[in-house]
Amino acid sequence: MRKKLIIPIVMMIILFISWWAKYLFFVPHFQAGPKNTLVSTKTKLVFVAISPEAEKLGIHIPDFIPFWKTIGVVDGEMKGTLWEFKDNGKTYVSYHPDVEMDVGSVYKYFSK
């Protein structure tokens, strides 16, 4: 009986540790850049609008974005998480800060 309980508990612990390790090692870490940009080693995001203002521009931010759509985390003063979503065929990134006042921003990928 104990063996039947220990195996699922160990599996859940391993899953939790691997999920946590994803954010430390495999998800890009962004920093605030010049002119309202977020920059990582391979990606640059350009500011589009603050979340409430994005709706006025016609960008609909989904209420629920699955955790596997995470594209990175923001370090420094702007600590938060970045989630990718599509609206009207365009790809945007929603930034959610790790603070109580959850007023995020919408970014888009920088293209030259």
Main beta sheet:
7 strands, mixed, barrel
Number of strands: 7
**End-to-end distance, in Å?**
61 Å
From the alpha carbons, calculate the radius of gyration and give it in angstroms. Answer: 17 Å
Uncertain segments: none
- Strand proportion: 35-45%
Instruction: State the helicity in percent bands.
Output: 25-40%
Secondary-structure class: alpha+beta
The helix tally amounts to 2
Overall geometric form: elongated
Structure description:
The relative contact order is 0.18. The chain has a 7-stranded mixed beta barrel with strand order 1-2-3-7-6-5-4. The longest helix has 25 residues. It is built from 2 helices and 7 strands, in the order H-E-E-E-H-E-E-E-E. The N and C termini lie far apart (61 Å). The mean pLDDT is 85. With 112 residues, the protein is an alpha+beta fold. The chain is elongated and about 60 Å long.
